[in-house]
Amino acid sequence: MNNTFEINRFKNLLLKDGRRYFRNYGTGLVVFCCLNAISWIFNLLFGTSSQQPFRFGMLCTWTALAMMMVPEKVYGKANLSREGVSFAMLPASSLEKFISMFIYCAIVTPIIVFFGGYLVDTLLSLFPFGGFEKPIHLYTINEVVRMIDNSEGVVQSSNIELSFGDVFPVGVIRISLYVGIIQWAAIFMLGNMVFKKHKAGKTFASYLGVSYVLSTIFGLAFTSSSSRLKQWLENMDSVSEEEMIQIAHNGMICGMVVGIIITGVLLFFTYHKIKTQKY
């Protein structure tokens, strides 16, 4: 039954996980949705104000933190030798358990926290005090690209002037954003199935360690190839606009593909761990 999928059985599992999700993490969701109120209270006490970009950044930060913690809070016992037996005995296949976990960790949590936090922030902005002068404007990716273009976000050489939108296609940016969100959830889903205690903390520490090692390797590779890079930059004037756009597009697509592969690997190992977990 490990690799099977049956819609009625999955529906029952999804409802059961939903009850556990709100029972174990409902209070946490409310707290994360209301964290922007801390800034509002601070403004009220000290007569300051918080601009929209700052509040939007905080909203994204709370969403990321909520995604870090949800696997441990809801599925923290899934890989424990005794407590995990109830998870193993659920009348569902490993595939169904994995998909349900993915839905609540990578889809439901960011939607609830981000838009719930946005709603709270908007309600606070209605008060004539507290320093939230306007509701946060949720920019579309197209709007962000236009804003960057209008603020001199261009690539220039002696014979080429490209806008940000020319160099970075909106579709690729959108896909990269979605992949990044799923990848962030996948990191902590896997960490939850690997570590026994302090799952979120250990996973985040591992993420920082791996990121440091990879950045060091790429830094050394960049240093070793600096002479060739310098030579390439000196010859940029001979590169046509079409070639420059193609180079930028290829670079972004390669980065997106690498991100998709990494995310797929993380999700695969999470599923594999659910499937092969011994109790």
Compact summary:
With 279 residues, the protein is mainly alpha-helical. The chain has eleven helices and two strands.
Give a verbal description of the structure.
The longest helix has 36 residues, at 241-276. Strand 1 and strand 2 form a beta hairpin. The protein has a two-stranded antiparallel ribbon with strand order 1-2. Helix content is 75%, strand content 2%. It is built from eleven helices and two strands; from the N terminus they run ααααααββααααα. The mean pLDDT is 87.
Question: Secondary structure elements and their pairing?
Answer:
Elements: H1 7-33, H2 36-46, H3 52-75, H4 85-88, H5 94-125, H6 141-150, E1 154-156, E2 161-163, H7 164-167, H8 170-194, H9 199-224, H10 226-234, H11 241-276
Antiparallel strand pairs: 1-2
Helix pairs in contact: 1-3, 1-5, 3-5, 3-8, 5-8, 5-11, 8-9, 8-11
Class by alpha and beta content? mainly alpha
Strand content: under 5%
Largest sheet: 2 strands, antiparallel
Which stretches are low in confidence, meaning pLDDT under 50 for 5 or more residues running? none
How many distinct beta strands?
A: 2
Report the helical percentage: over 70%
| Overall geometry | globular
Which key features would you list for this structure?
mainly alpha; single chain; 11 helices; 279 residues; two-stranded antiparallel sheet
